[in-house]
From TrEMBL:
Gene3D superfamilies: Glycogen Phosphorylase B. The keyword Transferase applies. The keyword Ribosomal protein does not apply. It comes from the Bacteria. One of its GO terms (molecular function) is glycosyltransferase activity. This is Glycosyl transferase family 4. It comes from Mucilaginibacter auburnensis. The lineage of its organism: Bacteria, Pseudomonadati, Bacteroidota, Sphingobacteriia, Sphingobacteriales. InterPro entries: Glyco_trans_4-like_N. Keywords: Transferase. Residues 37-193 form the Glycosyltransferase subfamily 4-like N-terminal domain. Pfam families: Glyco_transf_4.
Amino acid sequence: MKRVLIISPYFPPSNAADMQRVRMSLPYFKEFGWEAEVVTVAPEYSDMVKDELLLQSLPSSIKIHTVKAFPQKLTSKFGLGSLALRSLWFYKMKVSQLLKQGKFDLVYFSTTQFPVSILGRYWKKKLGVPYVIDMQDPWHSDYYKDKPKSQQPKKYWFSYRLNKYLEPIAMKAVDGLISVSEQYITDLQNRYPNLKNILAATITFGAFEPDNDIALNNAHRFPALLDKQTKNMVYIGRGGADMHKAIKPVFKALAWFVKNNPEVKLKLYFIGTCYAASGSGTATIMPLAVEHGVENYVVEITDRISYYHTLITLQQADALFMPGSDDPKYTASKIYPYLFTGKPLLTIFNSQSPAMKVFELCKAEYAYSYDNTPLLEEKILAFVGLLVNNALERPDYDKNALQQYTALQMTEKQCKLFDKVI
């Protein structure tokens, strides 16, 4: 049995999007010849929302090692708040010890806390263990460089320069790349020609069927967020100005619809739109709703909710909405959980997004692009009209296509790349 040591700073019970691939893959690694152990940062060192139910999805046989991190209260005085930077030293010490003590064939970084990935090169040089990096998002990117300061992430000037310095350190000696988007890999290969000679695979996030059982068995724990007196269309995920191009056509269509149907009982929910600590988030969707005069029909909840609360809320919705980024490389990790709900789904993405191919393959009927769909607002109006008149049929997604995107299938693809790397 080959052995992989997985580096995932966020891990259950922390409810972080970037640990979901690891969490959903752990039950299946052995099936494909790999024994996995995880090294994570102890949860008390992060302010990420905790969801204890996530622990129920983990195989009891998996070894979980924890490391410390410098306290955020201390490091924030120097402008260093990221978990990756705060835990870097502790990772170096702990993993070096583990690699010396046990025979590991591979180190696998699966996280968006990218700075920890520079340690792969160090461990490879010192201990001869190859490493693979999972690019769930771009690491160094020019996307925000020409954006107004109000749209740039906090401390962008610092993170941009830091990422530009650290990324090549990790990429110089990496043995394999996994990414949710083929374009992310292409961009890296153009930036670092040596990467054209290493193994790479585009592997999306999958759907993990046991999660539905956990959610249903604990539904009584979660407060209801939706108004039972209205028809509810729901999106749960991050907000941001980069999604405005996808959301504006919906608000324009909604404004026309409610003007002509003033008695309609309809609400669009945007839940968990900000990564900030609970109660301190900044609304990025409601100002757009106000601009289009539909604020009475839109609810934005910036606080993030737990993963299983999310699944239950999606099941309680009458229809789902998924906006994409204006970045054509963007693909949403939530695609498959949304499709597996079997709910009517309206999606609006950039026409070049890899997500569009998935929607087509799965035969998602209401999948549109904001930049290439003719009569887009009319099509949105038709969807809304069917929704409020109870005429939206349960979608008939292609089951064979969906089965290609289960966590089991995605784990097999990861393991095939691991096998080739070693």
